[in-house]
Every structure is written in C-alpha cells, then in structure tokens.
Amino acid sequence: MQEIPQERSEADATPSGKQTSRVRFAGLVFDLTACTLARESGEPIPLTGGELRLLRLFVSRPGRALSRDTILEAVANRPLELFDRSVDAFVGRLRRKIEPDPKAPRLIVTVPGEGYRFDGLAPLRSALADGAGESYPQVSDDETAPEAARPADPAQPSGAPPPPSAATAPKRPLRGLAVAAALVTALLVVGAYVWGSGLATRFMGTAAEDKLANAPRLSIVVLPFENLSGDKEQDYFADGITDDLTTDLSHLRDSFVIARGTAFTFKGKPIDAKQIGRELGVRYALEGSVRRLGEKIEVNAQLVSAESGAHVWADRFEGERGKLGELQVEVVARLARSLGVELVKAEALRSMRERPDNPDAADLAMRASARYNSSGDSRSINSDVIDLGERALALDPQNERAMVDLANALTDRVENLWSDDPAGNLARADKLADSALALQPDDAWAHMAKAEVFFDKRQWRAAISQAEAALADDPNNPNAHANLSFWNMFLGHSEDGFAGVETALRLSPRDPSVTWWQFYMCHLHTHLAQWEQSIEWCGKSIASGNASMYPYVDLAAANAWAGHDKEAKEAVAQLRKLYPEFTVQTWAEIPWGDNPTFNAQYQRIVEGLRKAGLPEGEAKKD
Question: DSSP characters for 128-171?
C-alpha cells in the first residue's frame, strides 16, 4: 500500500505565526476559506456540499472519535435516526476522494462502537503530545459565519484545551457510581410502571406513526427471501439475493435502505409489511421467495406499500439449478433496475396525489424521472421531462436528479431532430452533466448523461470512457452495458456491438429502454448487411413503442436490399409520415465521423433508402 506523505500536516502559518485557512495533509491542500481541495500539484478535487462540510468537521477536530450523530448534525443539520446509513455513505464517498487506498483507509479511520476519527493530521497531534500548544484550524459549523468565528469544539470556549482522553482522565469517585446505580434503579421502576400501565405502547405507537409519516421518499427494507424448496442448498442462494439487493438498492439516487443486519432479524417470522414499515420508518418492503421445481429454480418478488399493505409490483424469474451463481447475479440486476423505476414511479404518483398544486423540487424531479421512463408519444414525453426538470431546478438549482434527466432529455431532442437550437440544447446538456458529476462523481446515470453529450459531439472514445466509468460505479447498469457495446459501431467494429446490448436485454427485459436496445440490435445487423435479422429486430423495436425515425430508416433499407419491395415502400411511407421533409440527403448528410469502415457500411444504408423509393432531396451546398 502506498505510504501517505506526512511531512507537512499542519495548517499553513504566516511569518507572524498566525494561521491561514489552508490545511495540508497526505499530499493534499484544503483551503477552508475558498472551500476547495486540491493536490499539491494543483489538480483540483471536486467536493459536494456534504463532502465539504464533512472534511471541514474532520480537520477542525483531528484525532477525535466523532459519533455518527455529531457528524450528521454537522453535515446534514439533522439528527441521526435508527438504522440511518447516510453517514457511512458520506464517509465512503469522501474516502474515495482523499484516501490513497479507500479499501484500507488511513486518513478517516473507523472507530468501532463510536464513529469515525480523522488521522490525517497525526504528526501535528504527536507534536502537541510533546508539549506544543494546540493550534488546530478553527472551523465554523455554520457556513454563513466567518471561518474562525467559533472554536473547534462549540462546547468549549475559544482556546480551551481538549477534554482529557480516556487514558489521562481522572478516576471518577466511587460515590458517582453509587449515584448512577441509584438512578438506573429508579428509571427501571418508572419504566416498569409505564409499560405495565399500557402507556408505553401508546407512546411508541405515536412515535411509530410519526416515523412512518416522515419516512424518506425512497425508503425500503429488503426482507430475507424465503426458501420454499425444502432444499437447504437454496438457503445461501436466497440469503445472497437479499444481501446483494440491499447493496444494489443503496446505490439508487436518494434511496434509504435498511441495513442487512436489521432486515435479517425478521427472517423466519410472519411478515406484516405495515407493522415493519412503522417499526423501521420505511415506505416500502420487498419480500420474496425461492422454490425449486425439479431442475428449475423459481424466484418470486413483491414490492409492498408499508403504509397500505397493498402490492405495488411483482415479478417472477426462472433459471437452472446448476447455475445458481449466474442466476443470482441476473435476478439481482433485474430486480434492482426494475425496483428503481417502480419506486420512483410510485413516489411520483404519491406526490401528484398529495401535492398536486404545490410540489417541491424533489417531487418535480421524481415526476420527470417517472415520465422519462413512461410509454407513449416520445416527443410529448420529451417536452414534459424538460418542463418538469426546469421547474425542479428553478426551486432547487442543486437537484442532481433533475440535472441528469434534463440533460438526457435535451440530448434526446437533438438526436431525434426535434430541436430548433441543437447547439444551444447540447451546450446546456453538457453544463448540466458536468454540474451533476461535480455533485455526485460516483453516479452512474450522471456519467451516462455526459456520455450522451459526447455521443452528440461525435467524440466516440470519450463517450465510451464515460460509459466505462458508469459501469465501474454500477456494474448492473443496463444502459451503460448497451451503449458501451453499441458505440463500437462508430469505430468500425459493428461485430463487437452485440454483447453488451444482449446483456442489457437479459438484465432488464422490461426496461423502459428496451425499445432502443432492440433498435441497436437492428442497426448493428443493418451495418453488417444482415438484412433479415435487421428486419426482425426493427420490427420488435417498433412493436415495443419506438416511434422515432431510426427503425423505419433501417426497415426501408433492409427490406429494399432483401428484395421485399412492398415492405420497403411501407417503411418509407411511415418514415415520411413522421418526418414529411425526410429525404435520402437528410440521412446521407448526418455527420457521424470519419471511420472508413463505418462510412462504407453507412453508405450501403443510403443506397438502400434510394432503392426503397425515398425521395433524393437536395444536397446541402458548402
């Protein structure tokens, strides 16, 4: 493991001995006034608002074990709730940015039973132990206050030494222990009376109802999947699905997922989703079962509303008993993607029902996501997503979900020739994607939004690189699999385009993007002059709702080359119905790039459109 350079770990000082706002540690420079983090080489490291507040808290209190409650109050200005994992998520993201090896952290250390400790300023603490005066940066927890307005620990007066450590603290007199014991005894007596009188259940019931009413929008517990096979071999398979789903769902934007340890306390017990929802403070519960049927394994899953007890969604999967490992990966990937769509859809409907005329930014962003994943007229959907995204960002300019969906809608508008200002739409999408990545560098969907911008700029390798980054963040992201593979076509390698698209179709066969993945299969076959396969896949794409020009272009060309003149003319008629001004030159003059293999294959499609009877049109004059 790489050694962390620690020769300069104190706050910078002026010649007069007064502190400046910069803190150096592990080859990094943190400027508390400018709110920037950079490497000593000058390379900036972008931080989200939460990451910035967390790092400020750590450098203001080096060497101290900070509880999760303390951290969450400082970072998110809210108390820690039971089973809340947001602190661990914050710390994990910051570790990935500052630790040489995030899997073996040395700067932000986990303190079992307590929380986290920042050891990045270890040499400074050693110097203090040798007798030097304390000089930690004094960082305000209030971003509107001056940086040195308050001492490092708000509980202490400015300049006061830190509380003694456990090793040096004076021994507490035995009389204090006796008082504490008496107090515990009194509390037990009072507690027994409250419980026996029935007051406890009334108090707890009220708290539980409040907890459910205030539950995060996308809050869910994955209950242990039940093994109905009578085959103990399937126990680990069922538990594995539960574990992996808990992990994958925690990657969903804005999700709140109950930890595995808590979820497994319900294993083998009767399931009452409403009671569990009140107890854990979640709006949804996912339950499921595994059953062996001969040499087949059947997996059933149901998403249940913890408020009403009603089933929101259900699905079933089948696979071979001899391939449990592969089946587990597939089941988890399909469930995670489907649940992400269904949860957002359910919460969007909820906001429309409860706050139809007064939505907040999160409501509008979820409505945009739900609309983006809906079926119907593509152009109308695109307009609705743009409108909802703009309204969400007007209320909250930092809403990352709205940024991503609006960026995607703008690139869709450009790609489908619906835009009156392609350059302006693309520039806006580019800025939105960059802003989303600055807020959430590990969001696979933000990487895919940026990839689409590069796609529209015809920067294929950059687009592929962003798709690879998306897969690194979320290995089960079906859009990343499909696009990463399909874009090989523009580099002259159409034959390499199928594998990722097939993976996407297998991982998420009911995905809202399926109609586009089917077109990708069609277009790859078209480029390879595999006309009958092209016709089959484009037919599937249209049947599943693709109302864009692209499948009709391929159908016209493929049918013409295959000698299906009647079908070729029908495809041309549908194409002209969608785009009355569309001609051979409209397609021929789209600038896709300069790869000779791609262009030769593309020219064959142009000739197919001529054979199909599409009007020639006029070539643009230079």
Answer: HHTTPPP------SSTTS-TTSS-SSTTS-TTPPPPPPTTTSPP
